[in-house]
Structure formats: structure tokens, C-alpha cells
Amino acid sequence: MVxxxxxxxxxxLILSIFIGIILVFIVPxxxxxxxxxxxxxxxxxxxxxFFPEQHGKDIGYDIPINLDTxxxxxxxxxxxxxxxxxxxxxxxxxxxxxxxxxxxxxxxxTSQSSIVAHIIPAIGVKIASLIGSFxxxxxxxxxxxLQFARIACLLVYSIIGYFAIRITPKFKKSFFTxxxxxxxxxxxxxxxxxxxxxxxxxxxxxxMLQIYCAKNYEFKKKDMFLFIICGYILLNIKTVYSFVxxxxxxxxxxxxxxxxxxxxxYSIMIASVLLLTLILKIPYLRLDIPTNSLITKQVEFVxxxxxxxxxxxxxxxxxQAKIQSYWMVGTYGLLDTYVPVLLIYMIYINLIFILLYxxxxxxxxxxxxxxxxxxxxxxxxxxxxxxSMYTGWTPIVTNEVGGNAITGVQGRYFLPYLLIIPFIFSNxxxxxxSNRLKKVLKKCDNYFNNFYxxxxxxxxxxxxxxxxxxxWI
Length: 473
Known about the structure:
This protein has helices at 8-26, 35-46, 65-74, 87-95, 119-132, 142-167, 172-179, 182-188, 194-213, 221-237, 259-285, 293-304, 306-330, 341-362, 368-392, 394-398, 415-418, 421-424, 428-436, 438-450, 454-471; strands at residues 53-55, 58-64, 103-106, 331-332, 337-338. The chain has 473 residues and is mainly alpha-helical. The chain is globular.
């Protein structure tokens, strides 16, 4: 048997950072979903412009005109497969100075998002700006600022993922495989909060599982602070994923020193998350945010026609299942770079086998009600994602109220749900099945324990080749 020379969490960290850095440099600026608005928010925060202002009926920020022009130029890559990023472009964008002096007032899509979602890339931008201050030619250009922001996201999110895999007592290979999906790694190398949500979900589940499984574990204040931070991030950036904390209810009372302490800790955590949410929303209360009439009418349609809407939402979920599955793992760039269909099958086959092996071999016995509730909440959360797009995005795009189509849902939204799968199927029935398959699992141990990473690495190498072909060749 081949002995492991490196822990699974260390393997994750090395591969994530090494391959992620390659992606930082081969993917041209602003070629990931909404990277322009996420970067602009990070840039503004780095310049201590934390909250939007209101000028008349308009809400927004003072954005450097040259920066805005540069971003719009790079977005022209979208769906133009003949347009390539050249060495000449990259060379001069690294060396030429840039002017950020002249500004114009406009809104960005992340204006009202929590500043917590953009602190990490903002630190990267600030470091680049400080280094650039020593440049005799003047401030560095946005390409350099973006690279530093990407690197900051990659490093921090990789470290969070590392600790998630390290502390979880179960499902390490599943966590590894999901966090090393090409789409997960691509997002982790760009400026976006989608990857932050993914690794925070993983860390939250890992910590809860650690407390649940460890014998004689005593809940500590540092655990409480961790859950407060994770809870705030999930609640305020992507609320629909907050249900992952359901596992908290399965943790035995004795881990807290009794029911009384458990209630006390939970009360403090919930109150702290809500208080932080309220405090950081106060600056937005002064804004008179206009409401689009189409959105208002669409919300009213959903409220007054609940059964008709449920038919619409389920029709869209089922109808989009195949393409969303493709988008979730095989679409990069500005949603216009597609990997071969064969790779999609390879990714899912590998993921299914890893999940099956972990679920059967780990023998985690949760109450069936936990699995059933997780399943129900997952479906409810997916419906909430579609509802959000139906009410807040679809009517603006289609200029229609009460239509049958739901637009704007993107496959990457479903990545965190993959982490829930092992918890849905961990119960006494699965443990019983596992005992019957003991000999089969024993024969699989060598491969899954020593070569679990091979398929993930192969998938990522193919993804890198596709991105180079898309943008450079």
C-alpha cells in the first residue's frame, strides 16, 4: 500500500495556491462573473469610501473615469472568441502608470452589499497601492491592483478551506473534492464573494461536525466567536445558505455543559449576529433607495398567485437542471468559456464516487430528522434563489410581469449545496448498509485514501488548457 506522504489538508493548500496563482495570471482582467463590481467595491473600500452616497435620486460612488473605461474595455472579451489577450497588453498594463483623478458618480451592483464581503480583496488593492506609491512613474494600473486583490482572495480563502478540511473529523475527501472542483478554484482565484461563501460554509460544517463527533468536547468562547463571524457572513452576503447551521441542534447538551449553557451560548451567538447586521446596515438607512415598479409588481404577483408561481419555479428548476449542472462545474470566464462535455461527466463521476465512499466509510450516524430537514431546507433554499431572481432580476431583463421564465440563476450558486449531501445521507440506515459492504469498501481503501486527488488535478489541468486556448491562443 502506498503511504500518504502529505496530509489531505496540506495537499489542498499546496494545489489550491499553486494552481490558483496560475489562474490569477492567465485569466485576463475582469473575466469572471461580476468581478468588475466586486473589484470596484474593494477599490473604494481601500480608499476608505465604505458606503454609497445619494445625489438626488441617484445612489452610488465617485468612480475614476479611466478605471471605468478600462473595465468596460476588458468586458468586451465576453463571447468574442476572436478577441485575445496578448503579451504586449499584459506587459504595458504592468508598467505604465495610471490616473485615477477624474471621477464620475454612478452606481455599482455591489453598492449595498456588506463591506465584510470585500475586505479581503480591498486589503490586496491597498497593498498594491502602497507598493505603487514608490513608483516614480505614478500610481500602478488597475491590472496590478486586480492581481493583488485576486492573490489576497486566493490566499485567504485557501487557508480557510485548509482549516475546514483539517478540523473536520469526517468527509475530508468530499470537502477536498468539492473545494478543488475547477469552478471552485476558478472563483477562488478571482475577486468575488462566491468562493468566500463556499469556504465559510465548509468551515461552519467542519466545526460543527468536530464538536459533534469529539468525545468530551467542551464548547469554548473561541468556537462561539467563530460561529458569530461565519453566521454574520452567511446571513448578510448570501442569506439562503444560513440553514447550514441546522447541525448545531444535533450537538448534545453536555458539549456545552448542560442545556442552560447551550441556550446561553446560542442566544449570545444569534443576538451578536443580528446586532452586527443592524449596526452595519445603519449607514444604508439614510439612503432613499428607489424601487423599480416592475419589481414591485412582480413581488405582488408572487404573493397573490402562490400556486401559479410554485408551478413556474418548479418548471424552471427542472427545465434548467441539466444546463445548471453544466454551469456549476464547467463554465468559466464571463460565463462564456465551456469545457468539453466529457470533462463534465468525469467531474461528476469522480464526485459521486468520492461522496459515496465517504458516506459509507465514515459511518456518521445522525438522526434521520437532520437529514430529512437538511434535504427540505436545501430544496427551499434553491426555491429562494430562483424566487430572488424572479422578483429582482427577471422583470428588469424581460420587461414582463408574471412571465413563465426565470433568468439570472447561475450554476455557481449551487456549489455550497454539494457540501450538504453527506449530511443528508448520514444515518443508521446508511451505517447498516455500510456494514454489509465492508469487504467492498476495504478493497476501495487503497485508491480513495492514496489517489483521491488525481482526478481533481486532471480536471484542473484541462480547465487551464481551455482558458489558455480561450484567451491567449
